[in-house]
Queue: 2 jobs
Job 1
Amino acid sequence: DIVIIGGGPAGLSAAIYAGRALRSVLVIDKGEGRWSYNQHNENYLGFPQGISAKHLREVGKKQAQKFGADFVDDEIKTIKKRAKGFAFKGMNKTYLGRTVIFSTGVKDHFPSFEGAEKYIGRSLFWCLLCDGYKIRGKRVAVLGFDDQAVDTCMHLRKYTKDLVFLTNCDETGDKVSPEKKALLKKMRIPLHYGSIAEAKGSRGYIREICLDSGVKVKADVLFSRQGYSPNVDLATQLGVILEGKGYIKTDVNKRTNIPGVYAAGDVTSETAHQIVTAAFEGATASIS
């Protein structure tokens, strides 16, 4: 009855609700996404000690399976409309479904340097709401090349005064306005140009960041604000309408412009990107 593309919080929530409604449900996931990071979530209701993204995904999958949802590890390459639904062509197999929920999330644009993946979620953060609290009193390097990154840097002053701003590009590549550069100077936050050549640390925790300019910055945390982009390639194959910066447009019931096609989670909005909102949207799409 329902094929769900993406097995993060939105997809899992949708699968649980659909399974409990006695619908046949297939969740197709290629094993990537924010749930696969080494992140420990402390702001999701019901877990006073926090819960890792991987563990939440694991228990969420078991919960969905309890109510009859099936899971398959695959990457869908193409989707085509059929007389009674849709055909989803994976790497080696084709799946058929009457309806589809896209919970494909976003792709984060993390800095590229050797070993970067081992720091993600431990000392390489990206979400002010999720991770701001974790940086209290620490040495923080904020990474970004536009005014939005500077705004994040200003918000982080609530948590720490030991801040440095890195553009991760040379002076010809940054888009920071003169006004924001003046604000950094006023707040006595150093600004350094240059790409990250290396990060020194151990067990996923950064100690020092080395730029290709030769500058070395002592830091406990690298806060990346290089942005992200929604994973909408599959949705656009069906003619789904996008809005804003390329996110899937839905109504309040998470319906798209194509009958039988729904979307939930980070792929539907540039803002929020919280587990609680993803779970809500997944439930809403499934109920709808």
Job 2
Amino acid sequence: MKAAKNGEEAILMIRIQKADEVEEEFFCTRNFGESIESVRDILRNVKLRKDEALREYSKKFDLASPYNLKIPEETLKTAAEKMHSENPKLYDSLCYSRDLAVRFAKRQRESFDDFEIELEPGIFTGQKNIPVEKAGLYVPAGRFPLVSTVVMTSSPAIAAGVNEIILCTPPRKNPDGSGKPYADENIMAASYICGIKEVFACGGSQAIAAMAFGTESIPAVDVIVGPGNKYVAEAKRLVYGTVGIDMIAGPTEVFIIADKTANPVWVAADLLAQAEHDVVAQPVMATDSMELAEKVSKEIEKQLESLPTKATAEQSINTFGRIIVTENLEQAAELANKKAPEHLELALDSSLEREKIQSLVHNYGSLFIGHGAAEVFGDYAAGLNHTLPTSGSARFTGGLSVRSFIKTVTTLRTDNTKSGAKKSAESAGYLGDAEGLAAHAKAARLRLE
């Protein structure tokens, strides 16, 4: 796409295309974490050699390699006190984010009912929602230590009623020079603020292995949640079955449906906010206004110039960003459903048209309705969880929630003197006969005697 600039034609940074030009590959799963054999080796080694293997990998991959892995609670408390003293606005923001996230998660928990119902006379069926006993949280600390992820992973686990919660995050050098276990200070502070007392200085796929299999220091858990790089994602994929996981997260993405009422400055900012995550992040807008498309494109270039994360965001915009010009907003909704994005924004005025589009879209991790509902609010401080399905997996799953830490199990109670129970026994007998499972049929018919 070209636009005039200083009397000459200049290439716009983000690609603008019409809806009928969108390639089928755009809707395919984006997999940047294909099977990595080294991860299999790490999992096997940690399972066999436990803490010894963790220390070796820490020396090889991390900024520090403490002999002991568990960070003392006093160290977490000191980090929280330091944040409260030196950066009170961040401290208060974390507390606010935590409070909203826990309130939202508790309301989620209330929606998962336990019940028992008599389906037929003498047949009492029910369900119970039982929290897992132990949960493991993984919080990355690479280029961007994700302090908000402490809030997002711990809040639903706490609201679910998980008895023991541990957290693993990559080690950092202890500033006192002692070599004692230490991690990113903000992550340690956030852990203390969120009530997580068992924090281990252990990162990467080896941390996933430790939480899955258990070591001398790190207990085995029932569920592992949290984002990470492709090695962490592959490790979670491979340990699934030994433990539960939340999801396999790929590159982050946003899809914005906007019309001529949208503010191009806000829309460009939202696209760049996603683009700065990673060079393979995917910022996308669909609009029925070519005028808006061109304004947003120019605004992206303008905002990039002063963005500290320009190098990453620019590569993301250039390689994976695009603006799709549709015939109407209904077509934009169709494209969004086919794409099934992690984040879906409706940058539309409050109107019957917006209500219509809102009713049409159904494949997304989280939906942000209206001009003011910036996706970044969901990332940080609106109660919603920011750990969401990517690469089209929003077609079949939602994001991290209380459900990730709960088992929904079923119960059966009978009164064999009543008609329903007798009919169930008779039916079970005939079905056992049909399948050639004689012991099944007999076990049912014995209840009729």
